[in-house]
Amino acid sequence: MIEQINQLRAEAHSQIFSAPDPEALDRLRVHYIGKKGVLTGLLHQLKDLTPEKRREMGAVLNEVKTNLEQDLKQRQTELKRIVLDKEISGASPLDVTLPGSYAINAGSLHPVTRVMNDVVQILKRIGFSVVTGPEIELEFYNFEALNTPEDHPARDMQDTFYINPPVLLRSHTSPVQIRTMKENRPPIQVIAPGKVYRSDYDLTHTPMFHQIEGLMVDEHLSLADLKGVLNYLIKNLFGTRSLRFRPSFFPFTEPSAEVDMQCIQCKGSGKDCRLCKSTGWLEIGGCGMVHPNVFKSVGYDPDRYSGFAFGMGIERIAMLKYGIDDLRSFFENDIRMLEQF
Ligand code: DAH
User: How much of the chain exceeds pLDDT 90, in percent?
Assistant: First the structure.
């Protein structure tokens, strides 16, 4: 038996070290030391020997098994090295230009960003330039200079986020009007897009949202110019839609109006329409002619200059444009909602 074992050992050794690839090596492992392998067969035969012989041969067989396991391991390392050498030397057909095994998902612009970009692009075409102002503002720019009296509800701590009076988070983009007028002389034709903050949270209000402010100041501007600009904007954003100007009040404009757009759902008929609550109109922003007190606060002569301003909520426009009914869904970061844009 010992001879048989020695022969087996020599044969296995030479076969293992000439195995050409990992698959062949694995077949040898199964053949020699697998559950139904040659070595296991020999171990089974031990039961026919005398106890003394059995112990002796058992020890020999176990040593052979350990040896073969070492051989297999060594050859496995060698084969890995051979494959790697081949790849490095360029001899293996490794194509580094093949696509990877998983795709990288392409992102897309947030619907609010898209609408903001659209509005900016449209207004730039008719001569508006973009200006910005700080989100952390002073009461002076957010209220005082905008003719907003001390007892105005927006000035209440409950409505506006104060950091440390007079420092606050701007509650609208209108303070950029003041900053722009202070730093420039007419003619002025600017838009100010950006984030604004209010202490609000429900279906149609979030503590942070986006507005775009428009301001034009020159010597002979009238309400007709304001209407022309807003008509152009809405026509380019939504296609042909009539606008309606409803008398309203803002401290920094006189006269003031709220702008309504013909409902995109019922096309203005108002028939059983939930979107416009059957009025046929959708509110899209506020506007008006710049109040003389605002001009005075920035050192402009109100008898010489006239101007108009408007402010719109971007989320509101995005909701109308894409038929989104819950404002909060813009900020929940749910990829199933966002990847539709
Ligand atoms: N700032 C106003 C708001 O947040 C919106 C607004 C109204 C802006 C009239 C204007 C304007 O420029 O003329 O409610």
Answer: 68
Phi, psi of 84 (to 5 degrees): -60, -45
Q: Where are the domains of the chain?
A: 2-89, 111-338
Residue whose CA lies nearest to ligand 1 atom number 7: 286
Q: Give the distance (Å) from ligand 1 centre to CA of residue 232.
A: 19
Over the stretch 121-180, which tens digit does the pLDDT of each residue have?
Answer: 999 999 999 999 999 999 999 999 999 989 998 898 889 999 999 999 999 999 999 999
- Give exposure, 280-302, as e/b (b: 16+ Cβ within 10 Å): bbbbbbbbbbbbbebbebbebee
- β-strands 281-290, 253-262 pairing: antiparallel
Ligand 1 in reach of 213 Cβ (< 6 A): yes
Q: What is the mean pLDDT of residues 307-326?
A: 93
> 174 CA to middle of ligand 1, Å?
6
- Average pLDDT over all residues of the chain: 92
What spacing in Å lies between the alpha carbon of 294 and ligand 1's midpoint?
13
Distance 126 CA to ligand 1 centre (A): 21
Most ligand 1 atoms within 8 A of CB, residue of 179, 223, 250 to mutate: 250
The Cα 290–Cα 146 span in angstroms is: 9
The percent of residues above 70 in pLDDT, for the chain, comes to 99
Q: Which CATH architecture has domain 111-338?
A: 2-Layer Sandwich (3.30)
- Token readout for 224 is 């007709």
CA 16/CA 18 separation, integer angstroms: 5
Question: Residue 68 and residue 40: Cα distance in Å, rounded?
Answer: 13
Residue that has been written with the tokens 């007892």 in this structure = 151
